[in-house]
Amino acid sequence: xxxxxxxxxxxxxxxxxxxxxxxxxxxxxxxxxxxxxxxxxxxxxxxxxxxxxxxxxxxxxxxxxxxxxxxxxxxxxxxxxxxxxxxxxxxxxxxxxxxxxxxxxxxxxxxxxxxxxxxxxxxxxxxxxxxxxxxxxxxxxxxxxxxxxxxxxxxxxxxxxxxxxxxxxxxxxxxxxxxxxxxxxxxxxxxxxxxxxxxxxxxxxxxxxxxxxxxxxxxxxxxxxxxxxxxxxxxxxxxxxxxxxxxxxxxxxxxxxxxxxxxxxxxxxxxxxxxxxxxxxxxxxxxxxxxxxxxxxxxxxxxxxxxxxxxxxxxxxxxxxxxxxxxxxxxxxxxxxxxxxxxxxxxxxxxxxxxxxxxxxxxxxxxxxxxxxxxxxxxxxxxxxxxxxxxxxxxx
Length: 396
What we know:
By secondary structure, this protein is an alpha+beta fold. It contains 10 helices and 15 strands. It has helices spanning about 1-10, 15-30, 65-75, 130-140, 170-185, 205-210, 275-290, 325-340, 360-380, 385-395; strands spanning about 50-60, 85-90, 95-105, 105-115, 120-125, 150, 160-165, 190-195, 220, 225, 255-260, 265-270, 300-310, 310-320, 350. The strands form 4 sheets. It has a 6-stranded mixed β-sheet with strand order 2-3-1-7-11-8, with helices on both faces. Strands 13-14-12-15 form a 4-stranded antiparallel β-sheet, covered by helices on one side. The longest helix is centred in the C-terminal third of the chain and has 24 residues, at about 360-380. The model is unreliable at about 1-25, about 25-40 and about 380-395 (pLDDT under 50).
């Protein structure tokens, strides 16, 4: 019961979290042994022994190539006992897919070392999610940007990975794990650009993308499609993680990737029935001005893009639920659209991922279903043959 109890202080902050606690308690009572969880640096195996959780959202620039997607999906599910795929969102128009994975921190320990007269303090962080992400990256890198076309911009086949601490995990756990994964990706000749808490100066994702030319050069204004190989501007922003001596080398067919650590962000899109993307971009600009900032303190509350989506344009958003709600974004988009004479063009938005309140519930449900499935399989294996039961009855 210790692990379930360790989630309580975090989950009780939201009504949905209370249901998550009940689910976790039931989960442990029905099908998990009870373990004592250390107060610091848990080193046990499995979700039941580790109150530190880590979430990673990986965005891959492909949603139409079924054979490639099947390989990526298979890689994502290679360790279901330790890494849970909580959600998957693919969009045909964007030609982009996002996986939301959750695992646990199996080790989080500070170590001291001396290099000459300099003492060095390093946090060693381990998680099963690292190996799964490596497999997903390798599967995705069989793709090429030469044939890529979609309405969402990208800097590479592996466009972005964002790490988010959950449960008792701290931001520093997410930062060090993000940097380790960035090194793994760089080993495949993909230059990595860090952002947010993983960045040396805590530069935001939007700022890093802007410096790289993320929003320029490859979009066809007639249909809003971004296509072809990537040409990154690395004169202003050098890769933070790359193979030795390859700072200026970006393979056009693969591109680069961004890796960051942030609080958990929620995806929320608002459709605007207007084919003029410039008008929706004007809405996005005002939206970020009115809701995006924190007075110069901390990362932005909102990231937003205008994205063509079939017969209309969407305001695609990532928002920090600790500071901003989806209904506030919805109302502000409607207000700004009305100022431009588009008040009747805004539809009700939709979430593109699970919300922060639902993470523990979905995770508990997934783990519960896996345990019940395994228990059922074990029961079938151990069941005595019907004929033998009858013989035992006759013997009595």
